[in-house]
Write a structure and sequence with these properties.
The chain is α/β, with parallel strands linked by helices and 184 residues long. 47% of the residues lie in helices and 18% in strands. Helix 1 runs parallel beside helix 2. It starts with a helix and ends with a strand.
């Protein structure tokens, strides 16, 4: 599952966790594949019957205005497209979402450990384990460009029940049983 496909699954999981979800603000950066991920999110939103509110962030100075704009749209969920910028401003995003009582879905486990509600992403430990043979082959003389490209095969769903409780949410059992990790 590529990053642009993964974001659709993240939105789907947020909708499963919060069945009444109808308006989701999407905070994204044009860095790397942000625009492609936004298009994938829009496709998933149509299938799920969710209205998206797109908010592009290009630099640190954008955050105060964008966070204010997000609340004017009265969303009942917030999806963060992972980028260096959104990762750098994780504490601000998590604090904002908590203060505004917005359930969040992220693409990085650390964001949920910091207080976000849900993350769904490729397993970093699994990716490192799978990278070791590649490094070995390169050190033995193989050209990196000749090695096949592999996609992640193991994904992790992390749910922060402490955050859910603070938001007054009850995560359905059907979602909890699929979690790889539950933060109490």
């Amino acid at each position: 599952m590529a990053g642009s496909e993964l974001i659709g699954k993240q939105l789907e999981l947020l909708k499963e966790a919060i069945p009444k979800l109808s308006r989701v603000a999407v905070l994204w950066s044009p860095v790397a594949s942000g625009a492609r991920q936004l298009r994938q999110t829009q496709s998933a939103a149509k299938l799920l019957g969710v209205t998206l509110q797109s908010h592009e962030v290009t630099g640190p100075s954008d955050f105060p205005q964008i966070l204010s704009t997000i609340m004017r749209g009265r969303p009942n969920g917030l999806l963060i497209v992972n980028s260096p910028l959104t990762s750098a401003y994780r504490p601000i995003i998590v604090e904002f979402a908590t203060k505004q009582r917005l359930p969040t879905v992220f693409g990085v486990k650390a964001d949920v450990e910091a207080g976000g509600l849900i993350s769904y992403a490729a397993s970093i430990p699994d990716m490192f384990r799978r990278a070791a043979p590649y490094v070995d082959r390169i050190l033995k003389g193989a050209k990196a460009g000749d090695l096949p490209i592999e996609r992640p095969t193991k994904f992790e769903l992390v749910i922060n029940l402490k955050t859910a409780q603070a938001l007054g949410l009850t995560i359905p059992q059907s979602v909890l049983v699929r979690a790889d990790e539950i933060i109490q």
